[in-house]
Amino acid sequence: MKLRTWITIVVLQFAVYTHSLPTCINAVQAAINTLAFIESQPLSDYDARCRGRLRLISFYASTTVYCEPDELKEGLEGVATECSAQNTTLVPISEFEANLTEDAISHLRIVERFELDGGDNLTVPVLLSEEFFNLAYKTIVTWEYEIALRREYAFTSYAFWGIIIVIGTLCNYLMKCWERRSYNGDTHVDADDQASMSSHLAMVFRRIYHITKMYFSLPAGWKTYHLRLYYGCTVPTRMETIIVIIFWAMSITLSVIKYPVFYGNVYWLLPDRQLARYFADRTGELSYAHLPVLWLFSGRNNVLQWATGWSFGTFNIYHRHVARVATLQAVAHSIAYHHLIMKNNGMALYREWIQMPWFYLGIFATILMSILPMLSSIYLRIYHYEFFLLVHITFSLIIILTLFVHTSIFHGVYDIYLWPVVVVWVIDRSLRLVRLVYCNIRISLKDPNHPILMTKSTVTYSSVSNVLRITVTPGVFSLRPKPGTHYYIYAASNWFGWDLWESHPFTLASLDYTGTSNSGASRPLRPRAMDEELYTQPCYNSIDSDTPMVSNEKESPALVFYIRPFDGFTKRLRDMCLRTPNRQATVRLLLEGPYGHSAPLENFETLVLIAGGTGIAGTLPYIREYVNHQWGRRRWRTENIHFIWTTQQAAFINEVASKELRPAFGRDDLHMLFYATSTATSRAPPGLSDTADYSDNLDTLLTSETPGELGIQYHRPDVPALIRAAVAKHRSSGKGSGRVGILVCGPAGMADSARATVVQILREGFERVEYFEEAYGW
């Protein structure tokens, strides 16, 4: 096929996207455009279609024979519109009335489909044979079918995620109702009294929920790996894994099924070339269709997180898999198109198209999409977050811009997939800006000397514990964070440098009312049964302990974050502190938040709070709320809390115990175990193992007997044994109808072992245990 004819066919196909002509008219037009006419004067492609005498007589004669009058009228109006769009004019059918009489048409040469494949040029008008017309008609019907089918499959992806989101939202709503009933005491019933429950439906729901939790939502997708990496890969939960597998299977299936090909197609004679074109178009549109979902799942201000109750980590898992599928489909689209080009005129067509922006920018977008997953590996996200963030944002914006140009030849047909991306991105960034302004700037008309209040920050580094303590006093007084929430911290002092792109998530550990403008209104809260000797121990001298623990509601509390410095942002903060004599630096930091959800721990009779290292930030707020209601006025049903904290340096334990954790000591209902691993030589105390009789070792496991002011034990705790001991103690105390809540915030290995233990407890028959995990989903 000649290059000119190939380009003409492609242009005609583009027109099908933007103009809905009757199928009959399209069929005749497609067939006529495969023929080469020698006009009296040379004409361009569109001029030949709109003004070429031989071509138009052949076109009008064939449409007169094979198309209905109403189709002919509508179709010719559409063709005239196409010609006008190309800055030319369609010669009307009335100009050829003498050539379109029944007698004139009967004397026209009849052309068969394969008669002129050798490239012969026509010097007279022709009439399409019935077989030729039928093949052209089948070609158009198939082409329109493929257009409709790939659009339908594109929206099938939306339907899939819509169903998942609706189910998640419904489950979240039912859980909220269940927790509300639990909060009011309606579900505090023994198994023997289940018949007295007001609703049999509630019993059914609880049973379904238990089975789902035990076998799907809580277990890891592979063995016991979840937060731990499995050969460098993150592993979702089993439920998330099932959803991801279904999504992959659906995406692959929709990419490869239903391609009606046949020999004699007027666009592509051979079936393999038809298949290549249909496959290229479908995978391209499916890739486009994934983009809104891809952006929606990646946003911080994702309303779906609130609706479903899922964590950012869950949506991040789905975001990454949608991105991988979209990338593979984009690559398949590009490969199929290049194969088709090489099969039709080869490098001649390629050299012509590579000069067109829509073509070479499409190649560029595919290359960037292919590189981006490789530059988004878990190691890069963790250890070179700044670089990852800069590349991710830059590449993503370039990809969207190039895709607008890539499909501009279709006159906005594919923009329905791109504009939602822009809207989602603008809304998310705007809400981030709103949060930044709200958290950090307050305009006061009452104080002319300080009309604008800004966020103030100090960073203190303890070389003994190797921990940064960031204290941020927001500019706004009305900020009332909740336990379990996290904030993104910006280094505002370097906004014109590399840090412009940085915003790092950190869990809020505590509120500090020391040094606020109304601090005089505060008073220390004396915990019940407080051990007086605790405050005289020398281990607390490292940090001032005169910190008020109950606030006046009008105060602006300082937000406290614990961070262990590594590379990049945290290393720079540590270096700033090391350059000062007192290891304390004043830094202009900005807050963005709060994000995340609070776990409903107040509904559990027994709590097991497990923290590892700076993961104390995920558990400490709940302890402080329970002890003195600093975070709110929720009524707690909790009767016992087992708090287990493991960190490398004992100094960190001493520092937190002398300040934020101080009011928790001396209580009969709060049992704390501390472990320092810097000198650990064994995993558990002598005489205890994973197979120990927990009922015989409860006191040993859940009390600290080692010497020292805080009873710090210098070994790694047996987390599964401690969890089992706490659950066994809860059940043996006659509170079997009550619930046990287990919250873990710590290293991946610790969290995964705790998760696996809870799953095993559920399978052993104890249903009234819930597992919560505080972790940022990389």
Automatic annotation (TrEMBL):
One of its GO terms (cellular component) is plasma membrane. The chain crosses the membrane at residues 158-175, 242-262, 358-380, 387-410. Coiled coil: none annotated. It is a multi-pass membrane protein. Keywords: Electron transport, Glycoprotein, Ion transport, Membrane, Oxidoreductase, Signal, Transmembrane, Transmembrane helix, Transport. Residues 449-601 form the FAD-binding FR-type domain. This is FAD-binding FR-type domain-containing protein.
